[in-house]
Amino acid sequence: MAKYPASLLILNGKSAGDDLLRQAVSLLREEGVAIHVRVTWEKGDAARYIDEAHALGVETVIAGGGDGTINEVATALIALPDAQRPALGILPLGTANDFATSAGIPEALDKALQLAIVGKATAIDIARVNDKTCFINMATGGFGTRITSETPEKLKAALGGVSYLIHGLVRLDTLKPDQCEITGEDFHWQGNALVIGIGNGRQAGGGQQLCPDALINDGQLQVRIITGDELLPALLTTLTKPEESPHIVDGQSAWFDITAPHGMTFNLDGEPLSGEHFRIALLPGAIQCRLPPDCPLLR
Ligand SMILES: Nc1ncnc2c1ncn2[C@@H]1O[C@H](COP(=O)(O)OP(=O)(O)OP(=O)(O)O)[C@@H](O)[C@H]1O
């Protein structure tokens, strides 16, 4: 693999002590592959390392972490001029890894690292909210948002993706719908939403397939709204027979406008954003991402 150009791995500090990763990086270096590694401490570090990646002239920036880390790296890459933007590689080291899982990135660290360095780069879309905050995977509102943003770190560490579901069930009594209006190209809906998923990718919250038909290179966002005033009946029919549920509204558009008169919170790949108005628009083909050849998220 010596002929492959240099990469910079931005590693979420939570995973810095992973021995298997250290071995995988050492092995590749012994084979002559140039991999720089930088470790984050808090939000914002990944963006600073993108500046360093640019100065080093690497061809690939690898996001080593969960959905939040991938999102932070992708968002910072967008800020670079097109011609100088390195490709994005993904090393899944988070709790849920929703984007990596649905994109078919291998779970084995050595295989994922190899794909991130030498895989074929494909142009993928990125979504931008209110002209500044981006997400690569999904924006979730309502029930899902409160679960993912409130699930304690210790529960996540102990149980992984299932922790989101368990924490959500425990909190059922306190979950209320969000009153809002959602508009897109040929799409309009107004009412009480229990869950809203606006997906460039397909799943969030540790495996919940909110936008099962989403593709990351089709120039479209998918929306799924689980409607209703009472969570339990809506959730039960929706979980058991999603195709037949009267509580599901689906749509697609290159952009969505959401107005929530009482305010609501969207979770953008793990980062909460609160407000009364959200304009979500796609940046088509904005990033080159190294993905498996049979990636189910590509058309
Ligand atoms: N050294 C560190 N220790 C703890 N948290 C960190 C560190 N470095 C960055 N972070 C935080 O980690 C968050 C991103 O975590 P990420 O989403 O990648 O992992 P996760 O929550 O385990 O994964 P997932 O979203 O797939 O469940 C950012 O909000 C950032 O502030």
How are the secondary structure elements laid out?
Blueprint lengths: L6 E5 L7 H12 L4 E5 L5 H12 L3 E6 L1 H12 L8 E6 L5 H6 L5 H10 L2 E9 L3 E3 L2 E5 H8 L2 H7 L2 H9 L7 E7 L2 E13 L3 E2 L3 E2 L11 E7 L3 H10 L7 E6 L1 E14 L2 E20 L9
Parallel strand pairs: 1-2, 1-3, 3-4
Antiparallel strand pairs: 5-6, 5-15, 7-9, 7-14, 8-9, 8-14, 9-12, 10-11, 12-13, 14-15
This protein binds adenosine-5'-triphosphate.
The site of adenosine-5'-triphosphate (ATP) has 17 residues, from helix 3.
Structure, explained:
With 299 residues, this protein is α+β, with helices and mostly antiparallel strands. The protein has two domains: 115 residues, Probable inorganic polyphosphate/atp-NAD kinase, domain 1 (Rossmann fold), CATH 3.40.50; 153 residues, Tumour Suppressor Smad4. It has nine helices and 15 strands. Strands 5, 6, 7, 8, 9, 12, 13, 14 and 15 form a nine-stranded antiparallel sheet that branches. A four-stranded parallel sheet has the order 2-1-3-4, sandwiched between helices. A two-stranded antiparallel sheet has the order 10-11. Helix 3 links the parallel strand 3 and strand 4. The mean pLDDT is 88. Probably phosphorylates lipids; the in vivo substrate is unknown. Belongs to the diacylglycerol/lipid kinase family. YegS lipid kinase subfamily. It is found in: Cytoplasm. Its cofactor is Mg(2+); Ca(2+). Its EC number is 2.7.1.-.
Mean pLDDT: 88
Number of strands: 15
For the record, the CATH class of the largest domain is Mainly Beta
Percent of residues in beta strands? 35-45%
* Mass-distribution shape: globular
CA-based gyration radius: 19 Å
Q: What is the third-level CATH name, the topology of the largest domain?
A: Tumour Suppressor Smad4
Overall tally of domains:
2
| CATH architecture term of the largest domain | Sandwich
How much helical structure, as a percent, in the residues? 25-40%
Say which molecules are bound, naming each kind only once.
adenosine-5'-triphosphate
Uncertain parts: none
Structural class: alpha+beta
Biggest pleated sheet: 9 strands, antiparallel
Count helical runs: 9
Terminal residue distance = 29 Å
